[in-house]
Structure formats: structure tokens, C-alpha cells
């Protein structure tokens, strides 16, 4: 048996100014450069006379790079100031104290300027090859709870419907790709559907501006079962698929479905799940009420469970104005749950799990930064690696967290990366593809 190396005999010294801890950040940084992200921020964000107004582009790029490197608080950006990392990022890396001042300089109107940045970045990325083009696009709308602690954060002092303190942002996510199309921070006690109709209208305008010319569909859960949301879908020519709240009139309609109309679907218990459809008129008191399809899935309770003592089936129903086979539409509606993967990636892939400031607009700006970092990871995956979906954690482990060394020879910088890295071919191919993108004038 060969003797193991003794780690106690290794000398440690922090003395190399050319080392880069997260050298793989050159991939998303190259994409951000070819999308003109820094210039977009400088052009769109005007903080007036606020203390943090200078060099907004460099500050936002520093925050985005920190999120992609795994930083989930402002102080984590300090890691980017070590060694030669600044040369890889292509921007002046700012100190955490400077970035905190920058975020606290935002008002709600300035946050809307960041919305304009993300709108234009989405359009440029989709034009570069990350978009759906003429294909159908499904927009999943949902909200999530970002839990906070203490009473010092504006908009998060009171408990929400889940009995927690925190914020309750709205999110719109492109199905299958995980792109966050739109995000908006709300106070923690906001009702799920508060502001959702206007949010959806703006999201539709954003994806049309970005070049999505195919049919649009909106999917949502019962928290968004709301007349105003359905009205926006009809006005914007967007098909909808929304889980319905099962009050008494809906249950009566479901119970009236003939037994012969139920069609079995695959389920882990043989013969335990069926689907049927009927007609239902939602929001009957509204002047524009019209009948739509009500598609229902019923599932037998697990044998031996408490639910099995009280009922024969649990019912899951949604309304839709889409055309197509009932079973296909029901299966597609269940895929709305995939938005939870994007929410998880926002919270644990980048830094949405923490909202660092006591000021509401600063936290709204932090949300916008995390969305930009998340989307850069998604676009790097599709445009650079040619893969449909890779989580930020996997992207970071394989491509972003590489250690490297910067050297200069004949006026050229070279980034040296570990020899024999398992994904070096994919890395080189991705970098070549990203560098081939045109730079906005």
C-alpha cells in the first residue's frame, strides 16, 4: 500500500496576486459583455444625487458575479477582490460597504429602472438564440415566501398567511427553460393575487418585446383564480390554465359528472386516478362571464390514510380555454409545479434566500440582481453549453468554481485552468460560442 501524503507537511501562503478562485466566471461574464449588461445599467439606472449613484454598472456586475459564485450576502462580494479575479470579471470590483450604499440608494422608481434593464437583457439574450422564437411559450406564474427574522425590515414586520415574517414576491417563469421573465417584490402580508393582473400584463408585453411571437399560455394555481387575471389573459390573447377554488357550486358541478365520463390515467396505485371534463362558467356575476372547460382529476386516498376514512376521492380541478385532448391538457397543467425548481434555484442557486437590507427598495433591487444572475446562468447553459436546463449549483460545480491563474505574455493575458478537468472540452466550446455573439452597438 502506497503511503498517503501528509497534509501537515504542506506549507500554506496567501501570496499570489495572479490566482483566481472562481475563474470559470469568465463564461457568464463573457455573455454579460456580449449582451452589453454593464452599459445597459449605466444607461438605464439613474440614482440622482444618492450617495451610491456612481459606477452603477460595475456595482451591479459585482453583485451578479458574487451571486453566480455562490455569494448570498453583500459581504460575500469581498471574495471577488482577492488575487486576479478582477481581471477575469472585466469590471472594477467594489467593496461590500460600497455595494451596501448602492443598494440603499434605490427608491421604488429606481427599482423599476432595473426592470427595464432586465427587459432589454431578456430581449438581447433571446435574440442571441436563447428565446422561443415562433414556438409556443408557457408562462408559469406563482409567488413564494422569502422568510426573514426580526422586526427591522420594511414590509416584513407582520406575519403572512403561513404565519411567517418575510416578503412575498411574484414570479413569472418560462416553462421548460426556467428563465425568470418577471419578478416583483411585495410585502409579506400581500394576498397571493395582489397586483397579479398588472404583473401578468407587463410580463406578456415583455416576452412579446423579447421576440416571442408564438402562442402564449399562462398557468397558475388557485391563488391566482381571479377575474382580473382571466380578463388580462383574454385581452392579451393568452390562453389560461388556472386551478379553481372548490367552493360549493364547483363541487356540485364535479359531482354531477357521469361515472362513464371518467378516464383512467397512469398512477402509482392501479386504477386510483381518473380525469374528466365538463363545462363551467366562472365569475358568473361579471358581465363578461362565458363558459370554459373544467377539467378534473380525481385520486383515491392512500389505503390506510386518515383521508380514506372520510372520502372516496380527492379532486383537483382547473379551468382552461385551451383546445386539445383532455388528458394532454391535464398532464400539462400538472407541469406547472416545475416552477418550484426555478424558485429553488433562485433561493439556493443564487442569493434570494436572504434579503439583506432593512429597506424595502434595497431588497427589491437585490431581487432584481438575483434574477439577472439566475438568467445569466440559464442563458450560459443554453447558448454556451447547448443544454436545455442545468441547475446553477451544477453549473457552478462543473464550470464556474474552477481555480485559475492569470499570466501576461506579449501583451496578452492567459487564464490557466487545471489540467485534466473533466469538463474542459465543454468549457472551451461554450466560451467559443459566447465569444462569437455580436456585441450591441
Characteristics of this structure?
nine-stranded mixed beta sheet, alpha+beta, 14 strands, 441 residues, three-stranded antiparallel beta sheet, Transposase Inhibitor Protein From Tn5, Chain A, domain 1
Would you mind describing this structure in some detail?
There is one protein chain. The protein has 14 helices and 14 strands. It is an alpha+beta fold and 441 residues long. It has one domain (29-393): Transposase Inhibitor Protein From Tn5, Chain A, domain 1. A nine-stranded mixed beta sheet has the order 6-5-2-7-8-12-11-10-9, sandwiched between helices. The longest helix is centred in the last third of the chain and has 26 residues, at 360-385. The protein is globular and about 80 Å long. It starts with 18 loop residues before the first strand and ends in a 6-residue tail after the last helix.
